């Protein structure tokens, strides 16, 4: 083990603000996991981790100003040697490993060149993007007819790691806009045409002759001039909701994600700039408002309670995994119209077989529980009922059927709930499944699962059978469309037509997304699953 100090990499700007710390002490992080989000007034950027390890200390906090080389955190990295107490002094070494600049926006250089042309219509083009290409335009901040000031934001561009505003190089009136939200742009692409204040529209000046000002280095895009177009662009194409609001790109992005119109938010920053806190404050205030009477009201917030008024309390921060799980649960609960169906599977014969095979399984090095049989039976039922082995596409209009059967198993760990995925369950033997379940379960508890081992599931089994309970309603692990809850096996009297006989009954609950699956589909799936479990010989048919 050794301790690495992770420092701020070259961010192409002097000092920027930490607006989010994405990890906490004790978190296990992978290389490339986001550690921080930084924001200047022109750009926001994520700082990914250069190493894999465990966070042992965090040396910055939200609101701090940081620059290249500022120590961010200490990470315990797997490897030889004892803890290196001199590690912080090695910050520059960590810098060398830190993410390279190419993914961070070059804030100062993102400024298009201002033309020194005295008058005319100027074409404003996309400036140097710090090496990035095919960058998405996520916001067009102005529209035809707008008077813009020098430095006023024209568009907002976004890569997967950073967003940046492109300010106007000169003051003028927008005569046409060449981009719209969603356009993909590269350096030199035309953004818009500006009629420069005081210009005679009929006397454009070739801006190719215009030198770039000192503030905008040669890497910035040149401006050009040409005859103004006579046709005007339809306003509806370019009108942007937040165009005349002063807010940084991260705030704009958050507002878009949350569906908040920034016009409604009062900015408390300099020149009325809307900060993240302003946005959060606005959302909190809205959430605190009573839901509108009638349909369509927002979900009323649960009021905050001071529990210490009623007795002693202890507070504990939720782990990151716990918070993520909670978010996913809320998202799935709110998005998926759930139906849960219950049944008992008669596994008397399966249990007799399993018990008879336990000793042999042990010789093979595996513990034979009911779970691998359940996996195998579910795989067969999923193959026979493709609607369950599917997902709804994001467009809400397409169903994606999967020709593979990967099944996740919910594992409750001290840090939170994780769902490792067993691949190609239909092609594996019971022993293989038992071994893989045990291995992934252990890895989950040791927090050693990789992201790949938790992805690609088609269906999930949540087994509480080893713990207890007679039934529960599991939440669908979206974008999967169904989940099987397994409760504790019990011996129950079952009527066989002439008498009650004791049978080992396994309580099952099947929750499904009613947008993708109907009750009839679920009935058929459940009946088949029960059939496979009641007589596992059917699995080989
Ligand atoms: N009814 C009765 N007994 C059951 C059973 C059931 N449905 N399912 C398992 N058991 C028994 C097993 O046979 C085993 O008994 P023995 O030790 O006597 O053989 C015992 O319960 C414990 O089983 P297990 O939990 O070790 O093994 P598993 O294969 O059932 O589960 C794994 C593997 C990784 C899922 C498990 O280790 C685990 O983490 N379980 C917790 C499940 C969980 O957290 N669910 C949370 C879901 S929250 O939505």
Which terms would index this structure?
single chain; 541 residues; alpha+beta; eight-stranded antiparallel beta sheet; seven-stranded mixed beta sheet; 9 helices; 21% helix; binds oxidized coenzyme A
Radius of gyration: 30 Å
Number of helices: 9
Bound molecules: oxidized coenzyme A
N-C termini distance: 52 Å
Question: What does the main sheet amount to?
Answer: 8 strands, antiparallel
Shape: elongated
Low-confidence stretches: 80-118, 199-243
Q: What fraction strand?
A: 25-35%
Strand order of the largest sheet: 7-2-4-5-13-12-10-15
Instruction: Give the structural class.
Output: alpha+beta
Number of strands: 28
Mean pLDDT: 80
Helix fraction? 10-25%
> What's the multimeric state?
single chain
Description:
The protein has helices spanning 91-97, 235-238, 249-258, 276-288, 320-335, 348-363, 370-384, 430-445, 519-534, and strands spanning 2-7, 16-21, 28-29, 34-39, 43-48, 53-58, 65-66, 71-77, 120-125, 135-140, 147-148, 153-158, 162-167, 172-177, 184-185, 190-196, 224-225, 338-346, 390-392, 399-401, 407-409, 411-413, 416-418, 421-422, 459-463, 482-486, 490-495, 500-513. The chain is of the alpha+beta class and 541 residues long. The strands form six sheets. Strands 7-2-4-5-13-12-10-15 form an eight-stranded antiparallel sheet, with no helix packed on it. A hairpin with a 6-residue loop joins strand 19 (390-392) and strand 20 (399-401). The longest helix has 16 residues, at 320-335. The radius of gyration is 30 Å and the shape is elongated. The structure holds oxidized coenzyme A. Oxidized coenzyme A binds at residues 369-371, 409-412, 417, 437, 441, 462-466, 474, 486, 488-489, 506.
């Amino acid at each position: 083990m050794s301790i690495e100090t992770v420092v701020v990499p070259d961010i192409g700007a002097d000092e920027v603000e930490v607006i989010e710390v994405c990890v906490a002490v004790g978190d296990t992080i992978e290389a490339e996991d986001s550690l921080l989000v930084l924001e200047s007034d022109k750009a926001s950027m994520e700082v990914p981790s250069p190493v894999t390890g465990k966070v042992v200390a965090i040396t910055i906090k939200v609101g701090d100003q940081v620059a290249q080389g500022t120590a961010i955190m200490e990470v315990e990295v797997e490897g030889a040697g004892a803890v290196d107490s001199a590690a912080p002094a090695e910050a520059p070494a960590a810098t060398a490993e830190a993410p390279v600049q190419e993914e961070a926006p070059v804030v100062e250089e993102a400024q298009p060149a201002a033309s020194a042309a005295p008058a005319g219509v100027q074409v404003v083009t996309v400036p140097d993007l710090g090496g990035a290409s095919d960058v998405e335009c996520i916001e067009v901040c102005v529209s035809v007819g707008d008077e813009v000031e020098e430095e006023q934001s024209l568009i907002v561009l976004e890569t997967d790691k950073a967003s940046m505003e492109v300010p106007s190089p000169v003051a003028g009136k927008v005569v046409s806009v060449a981009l719209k939200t969603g356009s993909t742009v590269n350096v030199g692409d035309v953004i818009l045409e500006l009629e420069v204040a005081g210009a005679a529209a009929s006397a454009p000046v070739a801006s190719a002759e215009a030198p770039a000002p000192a503030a905008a280095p040669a890497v910035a895009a040149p401006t050009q001039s040409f005859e103004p177009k006579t046709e005007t662009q339809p306003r509806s194409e370019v009108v942007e909701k937040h165009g005349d609001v002063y807010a940084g790109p991260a705030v704009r992005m958050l507002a878009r994600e949350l569906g908040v119109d920034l016009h409604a938010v009062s900015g408390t920053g300099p020149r009325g700039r809307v900060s993240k806190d302003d946005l959060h404050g606005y959302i909190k205030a809205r959430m605190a408002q009573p839901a509108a009477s009638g349909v369509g009201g927002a979900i009323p917030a649960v009021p905050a309670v001071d529990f210490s008024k009623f007795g002693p309390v202890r507070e504990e921060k939720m782990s990151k995994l716990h918070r993520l799980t909670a978010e996913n649960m809320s998202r799935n609960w709110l998005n998926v119209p759930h139906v849960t169906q219950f049944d008992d599977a008669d596994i008397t014969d399966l249990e007799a077989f399993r018990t008879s095979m336990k000793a042999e399984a042990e010789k093979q090095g595996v513990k034979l529980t009911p779970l691998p049989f359940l996996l195998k039976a579910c795989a067969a039922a999923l193959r026979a009922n493709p609607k369950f082995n599917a997902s709804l596409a994001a467009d809400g209009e397409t169903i994606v059927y999967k020709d593979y059967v990967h099944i996740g198993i919910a594992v409750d760990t001290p840090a939170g709930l994780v769902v490792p995925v067993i691949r190609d369950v239909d092609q594996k033997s019971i022993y293989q499944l038992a071994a893989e379940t045990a291995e992934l379960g252990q890895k989950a508890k040791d927090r050693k699962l990789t992201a790949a081992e938790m992805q690609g599931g088609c269906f999930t089994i949540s087994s509480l059978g080893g713990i207890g309970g007679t039934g529960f309603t599991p939440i669908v692990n979206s974008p999967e469309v169904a989940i099987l809850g397994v409760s504790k096996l019990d011996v129950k009297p079952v009527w066989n037509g002439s008498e009650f006989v004791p049978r080992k009954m396994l309580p099952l609950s099947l929750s499904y997304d009613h947008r993708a699956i109907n009750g009839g589909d679920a009935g058929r799936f459940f009946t088949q699953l029960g059939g496979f479990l009641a007589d596992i010989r059917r699995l080989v048919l």
